[in-house]
């Protein structure tokens, strides 16, 4: 299939600034607020070619995402895979774009037609309908940040890497491993970088998730209702943080099964659980071939919430940023 057309920046002027200059200043501000070094390494971290970053409106998640993007090492990148969840339709398996380019307020990013076709030829991927592609935000929200970092890394737009947008659907643990195996050779290739799109806990009745750990006991989670007395030991927002920390610890362990088991226990509404799971499985493949200290595991550098929930009627979305050295 020949890729064609340009996907519009459909969430510009709503989820983020659509004016090039205003957006550039905003992203510069977010990035400038991140320290110049993390974990005893100057940024970007050499070899950190995989990141997890949130995908909410920039007012909410932009500052957190900046931590991931300032860590991301694009110095050798010739293409960037962007893995995100599907919010607009139920997707079993995984799906590839049909667009040739993705627009951003800074300019267009070119889709790597050869790699998309190579993946399509495996018979393991569906196509994203053009309508669903335009409606989906999990991929788009990363593109302005990617473009900004490309401007900071390369002298000319002629050197910019291509992108490989992939929606990761509702796969079980074994299916995630299979897609991880499939993507592992691309992850091993030094020409490739990966952006994994995910927010963390979506808490509140509007998300049908009101889990609470009484007295901080995350092994005995219960669901709050409108009839529940407002808990204070701990406050709800601290309970949310505890639940998220369990997921973060499981991801940082490098053990894909541990992450799958964690989500089965807490039902944490990590919307990018499947993209994260696929990438963890791919990292495990590389670690199997030769684990090295400090490589092939995510290290988290930032955690934020859209608000600090104190009452059942409140809600919040959590954001986390991480990187992995390959």
UniProtKB/TrEMBL annotation:
Transmembrane segments: none annotated. PANTHER family: PROTEIN MEMO1. It comes from Anthostomella pinea. This is Uu.00g030400.m01.CDS01. Belongs to the MEMO1 family. CDD domains: MEMO_like (cd07361). InterPro entries: MEMO1_fam.
């Amino acid at each position: 299939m020949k890729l064609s057309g340009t996907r519009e920046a459909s969430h510009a002027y709503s989820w983020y600034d659509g004016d090039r200059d205003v957006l550039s200043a905003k992203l510069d501000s977010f990035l400038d607020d991140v320290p110049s070094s993390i974990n005893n390494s100057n940024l970007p971290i050499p070899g950190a070619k995989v990141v997890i970053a949130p995908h909410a409106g920039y007012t909410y998640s932009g500052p957190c995402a900046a931590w991931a993007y300032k860590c991301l090492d694009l110095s050798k990148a010739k293409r960037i895979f962007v893995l995100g969840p599907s919010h607009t339709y139920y997707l079993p398996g995984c799906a590839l774009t049909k667009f040739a380019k993705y627009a951003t307020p800074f300019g267009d990013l070119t889709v790597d037609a050869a790699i998309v076709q190579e993946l399509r030829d495996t018979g393991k991927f569906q196509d994203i309908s053009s309508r669903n592609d335009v409606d989906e935000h999990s991929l788009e929200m990363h593109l302005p940040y990617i473009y900004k970092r490309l401007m900071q890394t390369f002298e000319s737009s002629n050197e910019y890497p291509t992108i490989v947008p992939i929606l990761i659907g509702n796969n079980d643990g074994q299916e995630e491993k299979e897609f991880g195996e499939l993507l592992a050779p691309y992850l091993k290739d030094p020409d490739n970088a990966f952006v994994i799109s995910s927010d963390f806990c979506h808490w509140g009745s509007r998300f049908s998730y009101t889990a609470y750990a009484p007295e901080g006991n995350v092994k005995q989670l219960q669901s709050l209702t409108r009839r529940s007395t407002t808990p204070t030991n701990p406050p709800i927002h601290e309970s949310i943080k505890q639940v998220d920390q369990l997921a973060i610890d499981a991801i940082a362990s490098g053990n894909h099964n541990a992450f799958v088991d964690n989500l089965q226990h807490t039902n944490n509404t990590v919307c990018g659980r499947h993209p994260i799971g696929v990438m963890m499985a791919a990292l495990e493949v590389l670690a199997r071939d030769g684990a090295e200290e400090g490589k092939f595991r995510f290290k988290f550098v930032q955690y934020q919430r859209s608000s600090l929930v104190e009452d059942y009627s409140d809600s919040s979305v959590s954001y986390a940023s991480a990187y992995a050295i390959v």
